[in-house]
Amino acid sequence: MSFLRRWMFTIATTLVAVAVLFVNKIGDFFLLVPAERFYVDIIVSLLLVAAGILLDIVIHKLMYEMQIEKALRSANEELRESIIQIRVLRGLLPICANCKKVRDDQGYWQQIEEYIREHSEADFSHCICPECAKKLYDMD
Predict the structure, then answer these.
(1) How far is it, in rounded angstroms, from Cα 110 to Cα 90?
(2) Between the CA of residue 7 and those of 21, 47, 49, 91, 114, what are the distances in Å?
(3) Domains of the chain by residue range
(4) 17-28, pLDDT tens digit by residue?
């Protein structure tokens, strides 16, 4: 079935070309065309077949380009959605050397965890490093 769909115009124009070769006048059918018309009919038939082949090739190319365009649109949409989901912190963050609070764009000071949570997709889980555990809990 796909062969017929792929080459339907070539097949149709070939049938018309064969009809042109065997018909002298519209309505009068002959088994053979008179010799003086045969060369003209062959040229017309070949042109019809060539036109059918070219039409099939162009249609196939257009269908292929439409598939590629659809795939590109889909990929572009996925990229747009990914870009929307990405939240990145950039630049310098003013941070207090003592309490580690961060100054936001409005000049307010926030805990670093709160600031990063608001400006990115990151979240925090708190724990105590071994050095701080020694200092806080007098552990050896």
Answers:
(1) 17
(2) 21, 16, 11, 60, 65
(3) 2-85, 101-137
(4) 777 666 655 545
CB atoms within 10 A of CB 112: 15
> From CA 65, how far away is CA 71, in angstroms rounded?
10
* Number of continuous H segments (helices) and E segments (strands) in the chain: 5, 4
Cα four-point dihedral sign 74, 75, 80, 82:
positive
CA angle, residues 111, 116, 120, in degrees to nearest 5:
160
- Amino acid present at 112: I
Q: What is the pLDDT of residues 72-118, one digit of tens each?
A: 999 999 998 887 766 666 777 888 888 889 888 888 899 888 888 88
| Joined tokens for residue 39 | 């060369």
